[in-house]
Design goal:
seven-stranded mixed β-sheet; alpha/beta; 298 residues; Rossmann fold
């Protein structure tokens, strides 16, 4: 059993997503992520007979990948059936995958894994479900996401209420993801990031979109009492003062963190064994190699 602390209330997250579907979901970020994911996958020159779309809250990724000749069958897996129309659907939580080892040639996920409590454990399970030389490709929200909203709420609550409450999720950091992939046993891990700026007439337009994404506060330690009107209005004022453009519209940052890794296979490129180099670095640089402990002269 994982000893990781519970950061996200995943039952509340599912409730938030159900409310978003009832309101009419805002899917522009998912559509952007799915399109970019399909473009990245198109550059991989191999076929994937069986793929898993893990946790993505909708059919956007499956729809985007269905246009690729390299991807044949796609299984959708999520703890919440709502929003999925794929006949190949499995009810499964990202933290407890029900698949046997070595089932899939490809596992993809879009804008879901940032809400997992045990991300290292989930990575291990994903690697195990992949066949040797299978690919894992995912995008999740990064730490710069909604930085403007985080700062504005912090300033308003400090001023009005004399303290802070957790309101914006502590998303993953790009520097940590590569190490987590290696720890999970992935070969050739690669990570990169992409920031997207969305502009709104006011911060209330942003908050409405977050509600329609099912991305409002699902933290375990969230404040249970209603937000004070005075705090909300002061937050909106601070947001406008700090993050408005010349035309009066306000900015909101969404950071996409991209990660990929391969299930190990003997055919993959391997690092050289220590001491196997055929030439010394000092020779290549045209300098003199000093024995250990000897200091360079001035």
């Amino acid at each position: 059993m994982s000893e990781n602390p519970l950061v996200f209330d995943r039952k509340v997250l599912r409730t938030r997503r159900a409310r978003a579907r009832a309101l009419g979901p805002a899917t522009f970020l998912l559509e952007r992520a799915a399109t970019d994911l399909a473009e990245r996958l198109a550059a991989v020159l191999r076929r994937f007979p069986l793929a898993l779309d893990l946790g993505t809250p909708g059919d956007e990724v499956r729809t985007a990948l269905s246009g690729l000749n390299s991807v044949e069958a796609i299984v959708a897996a999520s703890a919440d059936r709502g929003g999925f129309y794929s006949p190949l659907f499995v009810a499964a939580d990202e933290e407890a995958l029900p698949f046997r080892d070595g089932v899939f040639d490809l596992v993809v996920s879009a804008l879901s894994l940032q809400f997992v409590n045990d991300l290292p454990g989930t990575f291990v399970q994903i690697r195990r479900t992949l066949r040797p030389d299978g690919l894992f490709l995912a995008v999740l929200m990064g730490g710069d996401t909604l930085t403007e909203l985080r700062q504005s709420f912090a300033a308003a609550e400090s001023e009005i209420e004399g303290g802070l409450s957790p309101r914006v999720a502590p998303f993953a950091d790009l520097r940590d993801l590569g190490a987590l992939l290696q720890r999970a046993g992935f070969a050739l891990p690669v990570t990169d990031s992409d920031s997207i700026t969305v502009r709104y007439d006011s911060v209330f337009g942003l908050m409405n979109d977050l509600r329609r994404m099912g991305a409002t506060n699902a933290l375990v330690d969230r404040r249970r009492t209603p937000l004070k009107r005075a705090t909300l209005l002061r937050m909106a004022e601070i947001y406008r003062q700090r993050f408005a453009d010349a035309d009066g519209r306000v900015r909101a940052t969404f950071e996409f963190l991209w990660l990929s890794g391969w299930a190990p296979h003997p055919s993959q490129q391997q690092p050289l064994a220590p001491g196997s180099a055929q030439a010394r670095l000092a020779e290549a640089l045209g300098t003199r190699e000093l024995p250990a402990g000897e200091k360079a002269g001035k």
